[in-house]
Amino acid sequence: MMGEKKIGMRKHINMSLRRWLVRTIVPTIFLAVLFSSSCSDVSAVATCADGTLMNGICIPSGSSTGLPETDITSVITNVMKWLLGIVGTLAILMFVVSGIMYLTAAGDEKATESAKNNMKFATIGVAVSLLGYVVVYTVYQLATGVGIGTTSPVY
């Protein structure tokens, strides 16, 4: 009796899923195909305001691309700083949560061990992220002879 109820429930879930797919996914795909095929005539561009026209494609020249003028080292430095900030924030949050877990364990061995393990893993995460920063900085310094974010050689 119980097995028949489970099978009936599965059939109901499968039918609900099929109905959902037919009602949402199929019209979405149809509309995507319809609108993507209606925008196919792009060859009407004959002039190029801030660049060179090559084979119907406007190649921007100079600073008219709208992209930043910074080099890749600045981008890598900014990404590393953001990631270290995020990891630092998460580590502080984990330290606080682990401390609260440890204080509220009330002598429970499993809860105390769980809190200690969380604290250990948060410390390992901070160490790994700082080690990653040191490795990237060292590789860049060895490859170029210049420290990240500076223009003069580091000796």
Give an account of the 3D structure.
This protein folds into 2 domains: 1-40; 72-144. By secondary structure, it is mainly alpha-helical. The chain is flat. The chain is built from 3 helices and 2 strands. The termini are far apart. The longest helix has 36 residues, at 2-37. It has helices at 2-37, 72-103, 109-144; strands spanning 51-54, 57-60. The protein has a two-stranded antiparallel sheet with strand order 1-2. The model is unreliable at 40-45 (pLDDT under 50). A hairpin with a 2-residue loop joins strand 1 and strand 2.
**Low-confidence parts, pLDDT < 50 over ≥5 residues?**
40-45
Give the end-to-end Cα distance, rounded to a whole number of Å: 80 Å
Q: What's the helical proportion of residues?
A: 55-70%
Mean pLDDT: 75
Total helical elements: 3
Beta content comes to 5-15%
Strand order of the largest sheet: 1-2
Query: Largest sheet, described in full?
Result: 2 strands, antiparallel
Secondary structure category: mainly alpha
CA-based shape: flat
How large, in whole angstroms, is the Cα Rg? 29 Å
The count of DSSP E runs of length 2 or more, i.e. the number of strands, is 2
Assembly level:
single chain
* H-E order: HEEHH
Number of separate structural domains: 2
